[in-house]
Structure formats: C-alpha cells, structure tokens
C-alpha cells in the first residue's frame, strides 16, 4: 500500500482543486512548525520549558513556557518566506503585521490546552487562514472576517501520536507523524463524523452556572434511553483540541456554553471556534453558540469569546432546541 506524504497530498490537491501555491506552502510551513513543537513537547519534562512563565496572555490567562516556545516557532517559520500579510496569536494582544504584499491572514492558538502539558495530557496547535480583507483600512479591519470566509483551517494534536488535520473547503484530511522518517503521512482520508454519537464532552463542574436549557440537555444525554442512543459516555480531557479530535473521529458533541458567570463563553471565536467549526462542517457536523451558526458570526474583536457547541449535527440541533425553549 502506497504511503502518501503530506507534501505529495498537497501537490495532488493543488492539481485537483487548483489550490494556490502560496496557500499550499503556508500549510506546509505549519506542518514544519508542528514538527518543531512536537520535538519540544515529547521531551518537555527534561528541559527548562516546563511550568508557568509568570505572565498572562491577551485573554488574561497564565502563559506556560511552552506556549511561548510554540508561539515563537510558528511566527519564525511563517514570516520566513513572505507568504503571510498579517498574523494574530491568542498569546499576543496586538495583531502582527508581516509582508504587506502577501495575500493571507493567519490566526492561531499556538498550544491549546497548555496548562495540561506538565501532566502529559494531549495538547495541540489550532490555525485559521483567510484572504486579506482588501477593503479594510487598518490591520484589524483586514483581519476580522466571518468564519465562512476561511480558505483553510486545521490543528495538530500532540498525543500518543502526532496528527495534523486540515480542510481547505474540499473535505477533511488527517496525517500521522512517523518519527522514524520525520514525515507526516496521510492516515485519515476525507474524515466524516460517524452518524452514531458515542460521547459528550463538557465541564460538568460548571453545571450550577449553566443555562437551564443546557442543564436539561445534559440530563437528556445521560438518560437511560437506548431507543434514542442514550446515555452517551462522558469524556472530557480539558484540552479543546483533544476533546474535539476524539468526537470528530468517534462521534460526539463538545459543549462549552455561556454561563451566568461567563455569558459570552470562554473560547475564542477567531483562534478556536471558527477553525474547528469549518472542519466540523466539512466533516458533516455542526457548530453553534446554542442559537447561531458559528461561521455566520461577524467578529468584533480578534480576541472575542463565544459559547461553543460542536459535533454531530443531530446533537447540536438538540442543544439548540433546548436552549431556545428554556429561559435563563
């Protein structure tokens, strides 16, 4: 059986779908950054990159030393070839202007779930790529676009194996890293979410602060109702990329709803929700705030937070129906 490298796959996609060469090269640069970050992740306990860096990021969260390493690695690689006009990172307050002649904007969460790194829980890199908004006058206006305007998105998960998943609007593809050869190979061709859901993923410690509709739907998912496929099994890692990847492959739903303490949710629209929503829809699923399609949201800030309900379409519809009929 032929093993298809990620480079060969990109070349095939370029020929079949007329993907621009600069976009292909950006995706390949991200693949290279993933190799660098993976190398550091697997030896993290043996280096001085462990623990808190004693600073906070643009979202007010503690930054880990490995966050900084991942952020610097991605920036270094993406600015090396003049293919990116603007970058934005979850770890940095300001948008990062790059090559004004380039056509693409890339936003990224360099190391999602990094607070779990010291206890050997899977973490990941999430990215989102747009064309520059040429009507914008400022870097922010050139950057902020609806998720439906993404030209590519993906993530790299660093776990028991390292897997890169991406979409450019024509299916979802996954690649597994072979450390003996230093290369990613196609392992998941045209991923689709299984019709039968197996899992739900939510921080149930937030239940006292949840919308009544969210509380009700969680009881539904845990109910003894085999005819409708319930109960689902609860699985919650606490790294968004890990929980999403499991549900993408095995079937399920991830919920980080708005609460009375955080009515706008916790997750970032531009760095987390939009790219994963693009992947999810391409794989046959849905992504919603509980009342609105994620990819239809007009962003107002590069660090904007929103609720996120994502996974099997039928389950997302169920959550929306409960949310609409309950009163906060």
Terminal residue distance = 55 Å
Radius of gyration: 19 Å
Provide the spatial order of strands within the biggest beta sheet.
4-3-5-6-7-8-9-10
**How many H/I helices?**
8
Q: Label the structural class.
A: alpha+beta
List the SSEs and their pairings:
Layout (H helix, E strand, L loop, with lengths): L5 H12 L3 H22 L9 E5 L5 E3 H14 L5 E6 L6 E2 L6 E9 L10 E9 L7 H5 L8 E7 L3 E6 L4 E7 L4 E6 L10 E3 L10 H10 L11 E2 L5 H11 L1 E5 L10 E2 H14 L3 E3 L16 E2 L1 E4 L1 H13 L3
Parallel strand pairs: 3-5, 11-12, 11-13
Antiparallel strand pairs: 1-2, 3-4, 5-6, 6-7, 7-8, 8-9, 9-10, 13-17, 14-16, 15-17
Structure in a nutshell:
This protein has 328 residues and is an alpha+beta fold. The chain folds into two domains: 6-188, 2-Layer Sandwich (Fructose-1,6-Bisphosphatase, Chain A, domain 1); 199-325, D-Maltodextrin-Binding Protein, domain 2 (3-Layer(aba) Sandwich).
Characterize the structure shown.
The protein is an alpha+beta fold and 328 residues long. The protein has two domains: 6-188, Fructose-1,6-Bisphosphatase, Chain A, domain 1 (2-Layer Sandwich); 199-325, D-Maltodextrin-Binding Protein, domain 2, CATH 3.40.190. The protein contains eight helices and 17 strands. The strands form four sheets. It has an eight-stranded mixed beta sheet, sandwiched between helices. The protein has a five-stranded mixed beta sheet with strand order 12-11-13-17-15, with helices on both faces. Helix 1 (6-17) runs antiparallel to helix 2, helix 2 (21-42) packs antiparallel against helix 3 and helix 5 (212-221) crosses helix 8. It is globular.
